[in-house]
């Protein structure tokens, strides 16, 4: 290819290259020839060579060496060379290039040129790549051209002024008078440029905005003229008179009418006229109507006009163009909170868009459908959403399930409907639900006390049907563990009961434990459920003990920990198993969490365990928390409940806690059917942990039980919150309370004449005063306990002195 080849020939050769390497070779040779000719004197081929270089630049190859040639061509007196030079400046130069400063003077000269086409070249270039410095220098020239008589130049100058205002906002004051005068022009191009300039000025300066609000009537008349004008071939687009100018005027009216009653009232009639007279069958008409809707929703319009705007968006939903349907739902999404009833009328059309093949339209329809859910339509709309969930694409499943859960929680007509809905979602898309779904459902089930039988039957059927959905299996295991006795009873009024045997339930839980699909967390739920059933069944306790013991050597540390703890409960604390494994109380979701046997603000450092002759080493539970809104795993909840009863066995300072052989309890009080027993659970060099257990052998419940304690001032005492204040009749339950005693100096008193009373049955009794010890002496510890309770409507109060403590620590 010779250096003098024409542009068309160069393009043909480059396109004919078979490989990228061949293409690079052609371009390198041509660029070398262009450089050589640039170094020569003016031979009339500069514009020709720069045009070829611009094509090379468009292909992505470096062309920076042509920047100075652009400057030379712009300074040329020939129009053909100026045209290529200005084109090259717009493509190769920007405000960061030093060469751009060299063309400032040339642009200024060309703005005063006698030819409108040369002026147009300079205006286009300045509007494209003018820097802030160039804008400041040339702003007076642009203001002069805005007042020129030539419409062709004025429309170019208006767009150039828009660029200058964006670069240097303070120049807006200079262009404001000229922009106002341009509104009286008849040329649509000038009007378009003027409206764009005024819009930019109003958005940049609040004072200018107030000034241009006075021209709202003039803009309204201009818009009416466009709407009511007859056919004009010059401006007609698909039957709409200059839709581009109409859209720009509507956008300016929206800015002027925002938060202004006077301006809004002046344009209400116009907007109604545009909304009713514009044909939406073509894209141009749809664009004008869409801008009209945005204006109606943004200004202080009348309620009837807002309903009309929503109806226009509803018609857009029926359009075959997916882009129009998409923007319609996007707009409805923005106004659904303020005009809920108006949007609600188009619910059927919106729900139909859930079946659209386009993913973007389907996502918008889903978001809008969820926003339309209310207490009135929750049942009908939820059916549609559940139907959509069964066939929705995977990327929308998580969003759909989350939206359904939120809507059900806010507007559920009944607890049974709420539970059924969530279980349906778990069955359909259990693998896509969020982590908090399981604890939230468990909290819901615990509060619906009258539905426990119904729920456990339904979850049992789901469990034996499919164990692949982990979230559903976890909730099912939790319910079976808590309410397994209701399942075995086989009586349920809400649903058809299932005749289930103890072996059937244990087989189902063992299947979950042994399944390769079960996660470690799911196995933890199943193991804890199995353990809880040991107090709810009668004939298969040995089988449960066998199942639990198997997992004592499980490779999963968490599961192994649970199994070891449960084995210890079977072997060493079997007398406490019924109390430990009782049903969980109703969980209050509104509270962020409640302490496990500790009063607010009162903390005490756990005592170091002594070396014991027989001990079992357990991994420590990391938290005392019974329940939390975001962390309600059953095995953690159960073990926290276990630690509430066995709190003396936990050391919060170590990774392990030790359980020694429990000494026999001592009866310290027995009166009116109430028995109070004391047991020293843990002993250290300087202290001990004591558990007080109250039982009731009468025919009626004992209520209002409180225990208060007093010890010598040399002893530090902390009483933790009791497990309750009601003792069930006939020995069916018990109330326990833990007492922490500490004697740092291993001293006591010769007498018990000076006492430090403490109480912790209620929050107001949680003050713990740690008094300094008196001079050393060696006597055994004594403690006084005041017992208060109500039996058969009679208040009883007694005080007992306890001195049956081992002398090791005292």
Automatic annotation (TrEMBL):
It holds the Pfam family Adaptin_N. InterPro entries: Adaptor_Complx_Large_Subunit (IPR050840), AP1_complex_gsu (IPR017107), ARM-like (IPR011989), ARM-type_fold (IPR016024), Clathrin/coatomer_adapt-like_N (IPR002553), Clathrin_a/b/g-adaptin_app_Ig (IPR008152), Clathrin_app_Ig-like_sf (IPR013041), GAE_dom (IPR008153). GO terms for biological process: intracellular protein transport; vesicle-mediated transport. It is a peripheral membrane protein. It is found in: Cytoplasmic vesicle membrane; Endomembrane system; Golgi apparatus. It comes from the Eukaryota. One of its GO terms (cellular component) is AP-1 adaptor complex. Keywords: Cytoplasmic vesicle, Golgi apparatus, Membrane, Protein transport, Transport. Residues 661-774 form the GAE domain. Gene3D superfamilies: 2.60.40.1230, Leucine-rich Repeat Variant. Belongs to the adaptor complexes large subunit family. This is AP-1 complex subunit gamma. It comes from Oncorhynchus mykiss. The lineage of its organism: Eukaryota, Metazoa, Chordata, Craniata, Vertebrata. The gene is LOC110530615.
